[in-house]
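Appendix B. Chain record.
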Amino acid sequence: MNKIHFIYQQLKDVKLFDSLSSVVESVDALIPSNEEEFTELLKFGLYPAENCQPFTTKQKTPFYNLDNMAVIPLHEEDKWMHYGDFRFRQLEILYNMVRMDSVEAHNWLKDNLFQKRVDARKKTEYKAKFRGLQRKDWKRIQTEWMKYCLNLKYRDFASFRRDLLSTDKVPVEDATSTNYASNLFWGAKLVEVDGRKYYFGCNVLGKLLVLLRETKGRIPYSLPEDLHLFGKPILAI
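Structure tokens predicted for this chain:
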């Protein structure tokens, strides 16, 4: 089967298409016109499984630290990541904070962390409580903000750096057993096409991790001037 045709067929699933619409401005823009576009940041692709290094959110699994949900141990407080004087164990916290254009929202999440990390219930509560305050341009700027967050994680999270630099394969957030459309944007799922195994998805996080590895934590990013955290301009890294 032609790889482009396979991707078109997958995205004919109305439920998947609609779910992806909640993540990005245009699902159609994610569809590649040729295989060369598979490597573009915001395009779906099929990535040979043998060239990929999958990872999941499950602790103590290989390359777990590459996941944004990975947590630094509670007893290693001196190794926690930091943004100014705000210290946290998990990158997902920083990533989600600026989603809302509100100092109140930022402080609420900071004050309602579960053991200094975001458990699923608190993240859902955060999004629901401040839904009306989500930045109107969030879908457009989320990948630029992710670049910033990954630069910070590279700077602060030693185990993450070690895992990232220990492989030359393409990292893939494994979405094979999950039902979230966002996981096919940030990651990819294992599929079989003509008897060969591939990871299917945009794998935006994986592509950014490759770039992070190449730049040694210096991915260029561009953020809106009005983006803020705790009411102040974003700090330089």
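Further analysis of this model is presented in Appendix C.
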